[in-house]
Amino acid sequence: MAIYDLIIIGGGSSAFSAAMYAGRLKLKTLVICEKRGGTLVLTNDISNWPGIKKTDGLTLTKQIEDHALEYGIEVMDKKVTSAKKSGEHFLVSTDDGRFESKTLIFATGTEVRKLGVKGEEEFTGKGVHFCALCDGFFYKGKTIAVIGGSDSAAKEALLLTQWANKVYVIARTTLHPEPVNAERIKASDKIEVINGTTLREVFGEKKVTGVVLDKPYTGSNRLALDGIFVEIGRTANSDLAKSLGVELNQKGEIKITRDSSTNVIGIYAAGDVTDTKFKQAITGSAEGVHAAYSAYEFLNKKK
Predict the structure, then answer these.
(1) Same domain, 102 and 244
(2) Domain check: are 9 and 83 in the same one?
(3) Is 267 helix (H, G, I), strand (E, B) or coil?
(4) Boundary-marking domain end, from 206, 230, 254
(5) Looking at residue 148, what is its pLDDT?
(6) Contact 25, 1 (CB under 8 A)
(7) Measured between alpha carbons, how far is 67 from 277 in angstroms, rounded to an integer?
(8) Dihedral, CA atoms, 254, 257, 258, 261, nearest 10 degrees?
(9) With bands split at pLDDT 50, 70 and 90, how would you rate the model's confidence at 160?
């Protein structure tokens, strides 16, 4: 069995930024990911990446991946089923293989958080969605709602105005986007914000026809809709790291230091799976670079 200097678990911008730098540092590197690109591929408007005024997630993630591949890193499109300690090294397993490494980087990202209300599971894919870029096209001329109060919810609503005639934003407390998106929301004649309201139920027949709110809006607790897009945050994919004794915070995010190291020697983490407060593609990429360099320093000290 070949022994790698570094195995990176994850396939998003943080993972491939780490791989790019590890390759530059001549580390024998393997990226194992179930899906390349991560959640960034679902973003159609990126205008906060230095040096690139405007791009989209699919383009940017492909550019980062191609850059990493220039340095001879290996990529395996597999789901990691387990990770365990083996002496001073780590063993990472997939359904059909086992790989040994001196260090690990977790860049495993997050999963969408669900509402947990009546009708959500029943109508998922039939009017309940979790990605505006993926499914917004099906709502041309329709009335829909985004559930959530974050900047991500605001961006989803703005994107959906490309297709829908009317977009409600239903926020449990208040909608609190970044200033530039707050201005865009205010300027849109298609978006209506409903603050201080919680969705209690999704109903319909073969497809969604409306939702039940916890308080009346325009005289009724029932709001007629053709579909909803849920954007209430994400859950960290940290179970593999936890199994190795990596410390998590109360949200299940991996605790990291400024150099992206964890409490377990030889294990690092980067991106949305970490406890970094400000989660952006650019900060995750920086954490990935930190993690790769920290692994490099650790291996050099062992020599």
Answers:
(1) yes
(2) yes
(3) strand
(4) 230
(5) 97
(6) no
(7) 27
(8) -80
(9) very high
pLDDT at 44 over 90: no
Give the Cα separation of 230 and 113 in Å (integer).
Answer: 8
Average pLDDT, integer, range 182-199: 97
Alpha-carbon separation of residue 162 from 57, 159, 208 (angstroms): 18, 6, 21
Take residue 24 and report the two structure tokens written for it. 């530059």
Range of the domain at 243: 3-111+234-302
Largest CA distance in the chain: 72
What whole-number distance in Å separates Cα of residue 149 and Cα of residue 177? 8
Residues recognised as catalytic:
131, 134-135
* Residue 173: partners with Cβ closer than 8 Å, 6 or more residues away: 149, 195, 196
Question: What pTM value is reported for the model?
Answer: 0.81
Whether 250 and 107 map to the same domain: the answer is yes
Structure tokens at 292: 């790769």
Q: How far apart are CA 281 and CA 47, in angstroms?
A: 11
